[in-house]
Amino acid sequence: MSSPKETITQYVSRNYGHIIIADSPNYDYKKEVYTSFLRANYPLIIKNEKPPETKTIHIFEINNIGTVAIDKNEKIIKDHTTNREECIKNIQFFLQMWKRRAEDIVAYVTLDKIVAGLRWHHFLDPITEIISELWEYDSIKEIEIDYYRSKERRQKTRLYLNLLEGLEIVRKQGNNYVEGNFAVSIKNETQGDKERFKDILMSTIFKERYPTIRDVFKIRIFEPIIRVENCIYFPEIETEKQIYRSVESISREFKQNYHRPINSEALKRNLEQLVEFGVIEQTGVHFYGKDDLRRSMINRKNEIGPIVNALKTRA
Fold first, then answer.
1. Angle at 213 between CA 143 and CA 183, to 5 degrees
2. How many CA within 13 A on the CB side of residue 117?
3. What is the pTM of this model?
4. What torsion, rounded to 10 degrees, do the Cα atoms 67, 70, 72, 75 define?
């Protein structure tokens, strides 16, 4: 007679495919049930295209994608066993979360350079209005928030004020808002240069709150160029190495990551801008990340830690 571990291992091998693995089972003496957690070693093939070309396989170790349970007679308990389809969904969900986290890390490290390089003012009237008011008058009065604004615009302005309050760009004083500590320090630093004041504040807002601005406020003006940049840095963050990529492979990765193609001219323009802004490097036909930015991204990844909880919540 096989052991509980052998029974579960054989069941997983027959029913789940070669990348899904079962941990050693735990035994619940009250329920008389053996339970193993399932995990996956998902391979990512990374091609460095600078001659001589090399390929490496990077393994994502994905924990807690499901469970397999057997009773004391070593029979599978279907109600307590995650089926293969749900495990695959959990793997896909994990990979999406992993890539989204990489995108947020890329944005955090480099958006100050991108915001400084692109002219963003006309896209973000509510925020630029608030920053201009701070520059001119050191405060935003309650009456000015509501003045000649629709209900929807008033609500959005107050949401932005809450966002800026969290960054100490503004602070509530009675019914009004005045300069926060960060805005005061930047105003002193810029010494009368309004455009630099606005650039620093806007860079900070996007760097510190990019996911909120993208997902809550639905402002996606930087999303296309950040996604292109993420296609370059995502494998570099994981392997912690420089990876040379061609336009063609970046285009393929963009389609794979975001489930839609990117226009070739738009991709080339984004890559040219990223090089111009000092965010990536180019040698001949190949593009790759900058050493100092990659190190900052790896440090940021380590600060954030693994995204195990997302799968635990889903499972």
1. 55
2. 16
3. 0.81
4. 180
Q: Which of 130, 133, 121 is nearest to 156 (CA)?
A: 130
Q: What percent of the chain has pLDDT over 90?
A: 56
- C-alpha to C-alpha distances, 142 to 11, 86, 202, nearest whole angstrom: 66, 51, 23
Tokens describing residue 315: 């499972």
Query: Which two three-digit tokens encode residue 93?
Result: 């969900």
Residue 245 bridge partners (DSSP)? 287
**Which residue's entry shows tokens 């800026």?**
164
CB 104 within 8 A of CB 96: no
58, 46 in Cβ contact below 8 A?
yes
End-to-end CA, the chain? 32
Spatial neighbors of 144 by CB under 8 A, at least 6 apart, are 133
**For the residues 144-148, what does the mean pLDDT come to?**
62
Take residue 267 and report the two structure tokens written for it.
């991709």
Highest mean pLDDT among 13-17, 171-175, 284-288: 284-288
CA-based nearest residue to 115, from 279, 305, 283, 289: 279
SS3 sequence of 226-284: HHHHHHHHHHHHHHCCCCCECHHHHHHHHHHHHCCCCCHHHHHHHHHHHHHCCCEEEEC
Residue 90 tokens read as: 């959990």
Q: How far apart are CA 103 and CA 220, in angstroms?
A: 13
Phi-psi region of 309 (alpha: psi -120 to 50; beta: other; left: phi over 0): alpha
